[in-house]
Structure formats: C-alpha cells, structure tokens
Design brief:
Chain A has nine helices and seven strands, in the order H-H-H-H-H-E-H-E-E-H-E-E-H-H-E-E. With 458 residues, chain A is an alpha+beta fold. The chains are: A alpha+beta (458), B alpha/beta (120).
C-alpha cells in the first residue's frame, strides 16, 4: 500500500529500474543472437568451401583421366612408346588426387562413389599392365584390337563412376548452399522479431509506468483534498458546536449559582421554564449537528444506508409543513402547499424528512417574509417536489458552490447552518437514484426541485 | 445607574442566555441581531452602552465590519465603547478589547465584563 508521495515515487523508480534491467537483458540477448548468426554463416561458408574444394578435386580427377586417355590413344593407335612416361605421370596424379579425396569425403554415399571410381581405375591399371606386356611381344594390330576390347570399356567405366561422384558432390554443394541461406533468413527474421518485441515491451512498460504515475499523482492529490476537506469539516463542525455548548454551559452554571445562593425561587417557575427551553433548544441543535456530521462522514465513506419503506411524499410534506408552521409564521413566510394526490414510492422516510425540512427551512432562512409555494406532483416513474419562493434568489455562479459539502455561505443560520444541509440532502436524494437541483437567478426568487424515482428498487 | 451592555448576537438562544445572565448580575441589557441592527440600536439610544458583547459571524453585517464602521465615528461617542468579541475561533479582531471563546463559562463571562465595566 502506498502511504505518501515518497512511497509512490519509490515504487515508480523501482518499476523504471526493472525496465532498464529488462532492456539491458534484451539487448544482450540480441547481441548474442547476432553473434550466433555470424557463427552460423561462418560455418555454412566453411562447409560450402569444403564441398567446393571436393568438387574441384573431382574435376581434377576427370582432367587427369582425360590426359591418361589421350596418352593411351597415342600409345595404342600411333604406337608411340614414349607416351608411356606421360601416362604413368597422369596415373600417379590421379591416384594422389583420389587419395586426397579419400581423406576429405565423409558421407557414406560419397565414400562409396569414390571407392567405385578407385576400383574402376585399379581395374584399368591392371589392363594397362597387360597392354605393356603385349606391346613387347604382339603386333600393332593386336594392340589396336586390345585397346578396343579391353582398354576403352575400362576407361568408360571410370568415366561413368566419376560422373556419378561429380553429380553427388554437386548436389551436396547445392544442398549446403540453400541450407546456409535458410539459416541466415530464419536468423534475420528471429532477430527482427526480437528487436520489435523489445521495442513493444519498452513502449508498453513506459506507458504503464507513466499512467501508473499519473494515477498515483491523482491519488495523492485526492488524499490531500480529502485531508483538507476533513480539516475544514472539523473546523466548521467544532465552530458550529460551540454556540449551543456555550448556551448549555452558561445556563447550567447560572442554575448552579442560583441553587448555591438558595435563590431558586427568586426567578420562580419563569426562570426554570426559560432554562428548560434554552437548554432544550441547544441540545436539539447539538443533536441535529451531530446527526448531520455522522451523515456527512458516512456519505464521504460511501456508507449511507437507506432504510426504505413505502412513503407518501404528499403526506410527508404535509406533515412537515404543519410541523414547521410556527417557524414560518415567526419569519413571516406564508408557505402554501399544493399536493393533490398521494405520491407513493419506496424511500427512506427519516432521510427524506430531513431533506424536505432542510429545503423548507432554507426558505425561512434566506427568504423571510416572502411567500413560498410547495408542490408535490407525480410524473411517469418520477415524484417531484418543488419549493419556490420570491426571495432574493441565487446568482447562477453560486449554484454549484451551494451544493458543495462544506459550503457555508449561511453559516450563522440557526439550527445548524453547517453548510452541510444542501450537500447532504443532494447525497441522500442521489442515493435514492434521484436528484436535487436549484433553478434561480439573482433577484428572481429561487426554485428547488427534488426528483425521486417512484419505481420500487431492489 | 447600572452599567449598560449591548449584545450583538444572531443566535436567539445565545442572545437570550447572555441577557438572562447579565440582567441577573444587575446590568442593563440591549440586544441586536446583527451589525446593521446594532448600528440602528446605537443611533436610537439616548444613552450609549458602556460595553459591547459582539458575535463575529453574523448575517447581514458581521462583527468585524460593525467594529470598523464604529471606528470611523459614524455614531458620535460610540467609537470609544470597548467591545468584547464572542467567537468560536482563536482569532481576535484588532478593534476588540478582549475575546470570549465559546463555549465559555459564567465566571469567564463575568470576569471579562467586570474588567471592562467595573461596578460602582
């Protein structure tokens, strides 16, 4: 829980620090990814290079074979014995390359194909050895015949085997190349996604922190406002409580003093009657104030409990008007009530009594000596009570202020002008699902409208 | 001749209680409901009061405005009348000679009245 400004700023700083940490982690991960891609590429290149070199060696084999074939032909067809040296050179080179390839080629298929090439060559070499012996004894025609019958097929067999090896190596190279391209592509997309995710995450976190901070600031401001309102409320409440307390205090001490001097009878019943009336009024005023304070406290905590029952607003208003009649005549206010029929709803009788009494007492306080009209009517789903007077009226800029909780434009009014009357009344009416407002202009009288839903709820 | 005290107070209960106490003590008491009313009372009185007990928060004209009006000399001789503020707050107007803070007791009230209005 957050208790003050320092707390929530520390909280925000913690969030910011964790975002920074997450950003650093993401950047490190990204760098690691880039390194991995680089390594993959490097490895792919090595593989491709190996395959390319193998391919090159296979081509060399073909070349050497070609040399051997042409030397062979010269030897057999033209009978040039000197060609034999060149032939053995080509043969030696062929075997060297084949040897190199044997150490390089790793795949079983490649090894098998290479072994086939070497075997064909070994067969060819054996045939060539027989040709050497024949050249020493046989006729040139025999040699030509031998070339056609033995040497040429053996040479062709080697060429066929070599072609197969070449095709195999070419395939391997192409496979490696496309695999490398695939890896690189995948890595690129993964990295891009990572970067975007990082960006998105940062934005979301920043936004969250900012809105959290804003909410916290508002929270803090509302706390400050609540404390200010409470202080003001306490100041007003204690101020309002002091007058009736002073009356009770003075009256009691006066009585005590009389009792002490044995002079009770001096004032006689008249004094005692005055004493009782004063104390009674002061206590009534105190209890009204305390009730309103409790209501206000409950409303500010959202705990205004309504005890709803079936209430006739016309009847209730009639009762209140009759009850307040002495106050009206004392203030010289002629209050006329107009309520034709019962207006029944499901409301809290005591609270409604408080609201209507408050509205009527406002007339006495603020428009004394001026006639006032009270009307109770029913509309579709709504009950309406209108209190109208031809008094001094209220400037429109003051309307909203009048309903604020601690407004005390008329603080000094008797009977708890705590500035809570209208605010509490409106809260009570709104708790019923209705509304209370004023329509007035300075110098043109005031019209208070109370509206309540008649449909029973819950 | 008994000392004369003007009580300016909008709360009827308070007004009546103060009157009862002070009359009991033998003072002559006149009352007003607010500053404006008090000025009217002063203008019409043949003998000015010797002390004013003044509530500060009142409708129409509050206590401080009343004191300022008195100090300008609108009513001959009235600007020198000592005024005791009857207040619920700690603040005390400069123009008042003293203050009674609600809820004050009988002794406090009589003490401050006697200080500014000694009985013969």
């Amino acid at each position: 829980m957050l208790h003050n400004g320092n707390d929530h700023h520390a909280f925000a700083r913690r969030i910011n620090r964790s975002i920074l940490a997450m950003n650093i982690a993401l950047i490190l991960t990204s760098l690691l990814g880039i390194y991995a891609v680089w390594r993959t590429e490097e490895l792919s290149r090595l593989t491709i290079r190996n395959h390319a070199r193998d391919l090159f060696l296979v081509q060399e084999l073909r070349l050497e074979l070609g040399r051997a074939v042409s030397v062979n032909r010269a030897f057999f067809v033209l009978g040039e014995a000197g060609m034999l040296d060149q032939y053995s050179q080509a043969e030696q080179a062929f075997y060297e390359h084949a040897q190199t390839l044997t150490t390089r080629i790793e795949s079983p298929e490649g090894r098998r194909l290479l072994a086939a090439v070497i075997n064909r060559k070994l067969e060819h070499s054996a045939i060539m050895a027989r040709a050497m012996r024949l050249s020493a004894s046989g006729s040139p025609d025999d040699l030509v015949q031998f070339f056609e019958d033995e040497v040429r097929p053996a040479t062709q067999a080697i060429q066929t085997a070599l072609a197969e090896l070449l095709a195999h190596k070419t395939r391997r190279l192409e496979d490696a190349a496309s695999a490398a391209v695939g890896v690189a592509n995948t890595a690129r997309w993964v990295l891009l996604a990572l970067v975007l995710a990082n960006l998105l995450f940062s934005l979301v976190m920043r936004w969250t922190t900012r809105s959290t901070l804003k909410a916290l600031d508002q929270y803090a401001a509302s706390l400050v406002e609540a404390v200010r309102a409470r202080d003001e409320f306490l100041a007003i409440a204690s101020h309002e409580l002091r007058t009736p307390l002073a009356i009770v205090n003075l009256q009691t001490q006066l009585l005590k003093r009389r009792l002490a001097s044995g002079d009770v009878t001096a004032g006689g019943p008249k004094f005692l009657k005055a004493f009782a009336a004063q104390v009674d009024r002061a206590v009534a005023s105190l209890s009204t104030l305390v009730t309103r304070m409790l209501d206000t406290a409950n409303i500010s905590r959202g705990q205004l409990l309504l005890h709803k029952e079936k209430v006739d607003l016309s009847e209730l208003t009639e009762e209140i008007v009759a009850h307040l009649e002495p106050a009206f005549s004392e203030a010289g206010s002629a209050v006329r009530l107009r309520s034709a029929e019962p207006v029944v709803g499901h409301w809290d009788r005591a609270r409604l009594d408080e609201v209507v009494t408050n509205l009527l007492m406002n007339v006495v306080r603020h428009a004394p000596g001026v006639p006032a009209n009270v009307a109770v009517t029913a509309e579709a789903g709504k009950a309406r009570l209108v209190v109208e007077d031809a008094g001094p009226g209220i400037a429109s800029e003051d309307h909203a202020r009048m309903f604020e909780r601690f407004e005390r434009a008329h603080l000094s009014a008797e009977g708890g002008g705590m500035g809570l009357g209208l605010a509490v009344s409106r809260e009570i009416v709104r708790a019923h699902g209705g509304d209370l407002w004023v329509e007035s202009e300075a110098g043109k009288g005031a019209r208070f409208v109370l509206e309540l839903p008649t449909a029973a709820e819950g | 001749m008994p000392g004369k005290i003007l009580i300016v107070e909008d709360n009827a209960g308070m007004r009546e209680t103060l009157s009862a106490v002070l009359e009991q003590e033998g003072y002559a008491v006149v009352i007003a409901e607010h500053g404006e009313h008090a000025l009217q009372v002063l203008r019409q009185s043949e003998r000015l009061p010797d002390l004013i007990l003044l509530d500060l928060q009142m409708p129409v004209m509050d206590g401080e405005t009343f004191l300022r009006a008195l100090s300008t000399g609108t009513i001959a001789g009235a600007s020198s009348i000592p005024a005791v503020a009857v207040t619920a707050s700690r603040l005390e107007p400069d123009l008042a000679v003293g203050a009674l803070r609600k809820p004050f007791g009988l002794d406090e009230l009589l003490e401050i009245v006697q200080r500014h209005l000694p009985r013969e």
